[in-house]
Task: structure prediction
Amino acid sequence: MRAYCAFEDRPDALIGAKLLALSLERHCRDFKLYFGMAKEAPEFAAWCQRFAPHVELIKLPPFTKTTIKQVKPLVLLHVLKLGITDVTWLDTDILVLRDLEPLLAPLDDDTVLVAQDMDYPFESKPNLLKHYRRKSYRELEYTVNTAILRVTARHKVLLEKLMDCLQDPFFLEQQALPPFERLEGFGFEQKIFEMLLYSEGEEKTPIFPVHFIVEGSGMVQELGVTTYGVRARLSNGLGLTKPWLVHLAGIKSWNTEPQFHQYRSASVYSAFAETYRNQMGEPMDWPNSCGISSKIARVLSVGQPHWVGLAHCFAGKTVRLLKTGTLKRSGTNAKETVFDRPT
Result:
């Protein structure tokens, strides 16, 4: 049996959770979504009743700043214990763009499904390997992004090991520090999961195949205007490639602060989200709250969501090329141009 799961406990982010559920309902027939919550949200719970029995809320214990990174393996293990044998985690800033069954059905029980993390090159993390006393035995095709993560009952041992690593005292100490003061690799649980996929410890765990959803043609990643490249935008807009998902990895579109108006309206995620306006059960004005330049960008997209912000992207890529001589990022800590994030 296949199911999806997610988690959200930030009141201002439940907009994304609603949009995720609506996109699953539109594109994935007979879907089942287990939604973890650690805080009471009666209005959201009442809104979810419209999906019954397709959406089921799971009550979880409260998380702290240092333990919130444990939520992903915790929810996945919880759903597997319910008897679900194939479960896919989805971040709540994801929109499903088409039926996921053709993506998931061909995968065998041993295969882990993740997304490619932008165009960052794969790099093993020696400090993680040293701390957790593990040895690298392979290189992965891409850097791992667990915004989508498909596992089966075969991967319980992998998830349990991930929980052990995230409960490590040193990792917990790192979470108490400001993000930019944490040691490389200790800031994100997906870096720990990635390490487990390419390394082995004293205990011998199975070597699981990893299937990546490729950035651009498989999954639209928006960390800024230029992260969704010109070539991929054109290909997806023309229907030559058909991405499964769009992931709003950066500043959220529903952030109402004025300085983010231009970024919000130039977002592909916002363009797709706007199609659910009448089903949200709350005002949804943020896709259109923008300045003149962004309104022009919407007009230039000729109604194609993948082309919203295309002009911004082209300008940003040009600036990067002139400044650095390349369109590629050099690593996960590479700085972005002014077009990547709003000013």
